[in-house]
Structure formats: C-alpha cells, structure tokens
Batch of 2 targets.
Target 1
Amino acid sequence: MAAPTSQPTRPRRLLASVRRRPAAVAGATILATFVILALVGPLLTPYGVHQRVGEVYAHPSAAHPLGLDDAGVDMLTLLIAGTRVSLFVGFAASVVSVIVGGSIGVLAGYAGGWVDGALMRLTDYMIVVPALPLMIVVATVWGPSVVHMVLVIGLLMWTSTARLLRAQVLSLRERASVRRARAIGCGHWRIAFRHIVPEVYGLLGATTVLTVSVAIFYEAALSFLGLGDPGTVSWGRLIEMAFERTAISSGAWWAIVPPGVCVALVVLGSSLLGNALQDAANPRAAIAHVSPRTFRVRAERGDRR
C-alpha cells in the first residue's frame, strides 16, 4: 500500500505560485539587491559620510564612480548610507501600517454589527483626508526625526489594509470550519487566531510589500520638503540637498539622479512583488487582469467540424 503523500503547506504553495511569475522574481531580485547593499555596503566604501575627498561637484571617475557632492563627499558612500535609512523607514512604516490596518480589518470583519460600522466609518474618514498634506502637518508638529517619520507614515496609510482584510474576513467567517468551531463552543479568540488570521497571512505579506513602496515614496517626499531628520542621510535628503545647493544649475546630475533612480527601482520592485503575492494569495483578484486579448473560449469536441 502506497504511503500517502503529504500536502504542501500554504506558505509553500504561495512561494511556488510566486516563483512561476517573472514579475515577482524581478521584484524580489531588486529588493534583495538593495537589502544586501544596505547590509554590506558600508564595508565596501573606504570613505565616511562627512569626509571630504575632493573638489566640489567633481565628475565621476574610477575612484568615485558617482562623483562628489557640493561638500566634496563621495556620492556612492552617501547613496549607500541613504539606502539603509530609506529602507528602514519604508519597512518599519509598512509594519506599523499593517499592524494597525490588519487589526482594524480583522476586528471589523469578524465582529460585525456596530463595531464594523464604527471602524469602517473611521476608515472612510481617513481615506477622504489627503495623506501627504496631513503627513506634512503632523511631521511639522512632531519635529524632524526618523522615529517620528516612521510613525507619521505608518499611522496614516493603514486604510487600504483595513478594508482589504475586512472583506477577506467577512468571507472567512461564513466558512463551514468557522461555523463548526462556533457551534462546539470555541471562544472568539480561538476562532480568530486559529481559523481566521492564518488564512490572511498571504494577504498581509502582500500588503506589507506593497506598502513598502508607498512608505519609501512618502519618506522621500517628506525629506525633500525638509521634514526629515537633518542628522541622517536618506535618498530624499540627498535629493533635497542637491536642489538646495544648485546641483542642477551646476550640471552635477550625479548628485540628484542616482537617489531618484534608487527610489524608482525600490517602488517598482515592491509593486511587482506585492502584486504577485496578492494575486497568489487571492486568486479571485487575478480575474480582474483578464482582458479580451488574453481570454479565449475553447470549443467543445463535439462542436468541432
């Protein structure tokens, strides 16, 4: 008698589904490259972020592949240092946003009734308020700091996560397994953490990755507006300094283009990987991508002539 084959777990099925998507592989490669650069990059640069090594806005050369800034500091060193700060703000703000939005979405979807109504009205009000102007106001009141920036971004962009999780939980709570657990007397906490939350791990991971791109964009925007921590170096801070110190009029494109390209690449990588994870975790959402050009109706064998 043949031994029964073990079924792959949900995370393995999710990873297998993502690996078959070229866009997901490309996005994961981009993000992994920047994460590795942030971790080991400081060991590869012989200069400090405040060390003057040449003339102002010196052109790129073999010793300085990205040239120098207005203070004669190596731009490659500054770019690697900015990678660590920008990625930290992006991932930390994304975690804060997912924790807040996920908690509200699961609670609203599972509890229902007036709890659902109150939480969704709060979510609707937060959606209506423009995010960036509100972030500017809050960041100005709290003061420039990396921690403040993480909290400002994370606490003001949880609405999409809450609505997505609520819709998923509304469907999950009507499943037979959840009804059976409720019928045999299982408590609400046990039902939530044994039957509801494990089913939304995939969507939480996809939402986290997608939120990273938005968080890094907002970090660059706030730093460009002068609301970032002046004691740290980030991609937005580099762009701000390049604009303030006449890099464009001086023709020093290397002081502004590399950080902008890095922001664009991380946003692109997060979007590619996040969308692939979301489609793999919720296959029904992938139906929205079907178009007349990719959809064909196969004829039955009996209809062939």
Target 2
Amino acid sequence: MRVVEIPAFGKPEVLRLAERPQPQPGAGEVLIRVRASGVNRPDVLQRKGHYPPPPGASDLPGLEVAGVIEGGDAAALAEAGFQVGDRVCALVAGGGYAEYCVAPVAQCLPVPEGLSDAEAASLPETFFTVWSNVFDRGRLQAGETLLVQGGTSGIGVTAIQLARAFGATVIATAGSEQKCQACVELGASHAIHYKNQDFAAECLRLTQGRGVDVILDIVAGDYVAREVECLAEDGRLLIIAVQGGTKSSFDASLVLRRRLVITGSTLRPRPVAFKGAIARALRERVWPLIAAGKIRPVVHRTFAAADAAQAHALMESNQHIGKIVLTW
C-alpha cells in the first residue's frame, strides 16, 4: 500500500510517499480502506520530532481517517453494528496517512449520511478532543459562556458549533477580521481579534465583569495568566496544546478566591476503552446533529496524499479556516 512517511524530522518537504505492507487487524480491530485522512497539528509536531507516537502505534502520521471497512474482528464488528462495506470514520493513534489503516472498532463511527469522505475524515480528532475536554472535563452547561482560543482552527470550528448546539454562549479569538467573521458565522456570539484587542479585557467587558465559565486553550504560555483573570467563579481552564510555550506564571490567589480549575489532557495515549466511551457519546448525542445539518464539518482544503508537504505547509501558515484533509 502507499503511505506518507517521515524518513527524517524537519520541514514539510521531508514527507514522502512510500510503499509498505498492508497492516493486519487484531482482536477488537477493523481494517479500513482509507479514502481520506485528516491533517492535524500533532502531525506537524510529529514531523518535527516533538510528538512521538505512543508505544505500539504506527510510526506513520495521521490520527483520523475515513473509508470503507475491508475486514476485521467479526465479533467486534457485529457487536458495534458494523459490517464489511460500511463507510466509517475513525480515530487512530497513528498510521492514518496510508491507503489502509487498522483502527479499534470502538473508535469507529458511521459516516453521517450526506457527508463526503473528506468531510468525514475531518471529524474524529477534533470531535473526540472537544467532547472529552469541553463537555466531560470542563462540564460546560447550557447558559454558560465558553471562550475558544483559536476559533478557526480545526478544534475551534468544532468547539464553537458544539457549544452553541448545546446551549452555551461562545466567545472566540482569531487573528484576522476574516477569521473573526468566520467564527461568528459558525455560531460565536462574539469574536475577538487577538492581535488588536486584549482578549481578557474583552471577555470581562462582554460578560459585564462576570467572566467566562470555561476556556478551551490551545496556546498556554503567557495566555494562562490572562485566562485566569477572565474566568468567572468556579471557572474551568482546559489546556489542550502549548503553541505559546510550556511555561506559565499566574496569580494563584485568583484560583483560590474564585475556586478555579486548571486542567489539561492529551488524547492520543489514552486507552481504547476511554476513547470508545467518547465515541459512544458522540454517536448518541452529536452524530444526529450532524445528520440533521445543525453541525457541519468545515473543510478548508483537500490535497492529494502525494502533496502532504503542501498540506503541512498550509497548516503551519495558519491561513486555513477549519480542517485540511488528504485524499487517496
């Protein structure tokens, strides 16, 4: 099968097409004939040598795929309600940049009716991540306010739509007027141009000094101090990436007085049982909203798999709105 591999760490140009043996599914696993592979920020970090795959995972990049079931553990497939020939999308710990990919059956979801392969491949990584963090860890409730840092990232466009669908008010940050407008069109009540405005001051102004209930943060670094300042009482800060750096200094007395929670997580190394529980929640509570058109995938651009380097270069340029996808 054809794959996109990382023969050496470096710039996007190190990515190359290669031939490898087709993987074989084991117990509880399914073999997917991949038609599209989602491109995500962790893939870029892995290409640079900063995000190694967990033990036992493929060394190929790629955390999400969409395609057709070719085979696998018959009992596990039957228990999950799948059969050979079904269109599915799946979250994987690696190996997604390939024509065939093995995935745990528990991490597979049916492709919502009406979606293309590219749209389906854009769903798993961000939807699993946002659900696990914003709704499970962050306990976002209807009537609360969510601040989404990086509203036009893959994570951002998903978080805005999910939070809005479940009754929360959304404030998003973005780096241009065009991106701010895109956030509003996706459902954010307010969008803050972070290059021109202090997001913490704006959040306090927009909430009449109360602050926001939950923050989804992909930046960390010096953002954390300002995020602590604009959290409401009993607020929750969810750190899921550290694009702004790993070191933070903040006023701990605010954490005490306002009873704040600062937490973080990475999804890739978590066990199949944990990810499977997220998949079940998504299938029950979110997939019907996608099928009804109330939440939609946002695919900025697709590339042929042979052009994976161009896809990575686009992601690093930060010019995209939504997801980038490879097609096979």
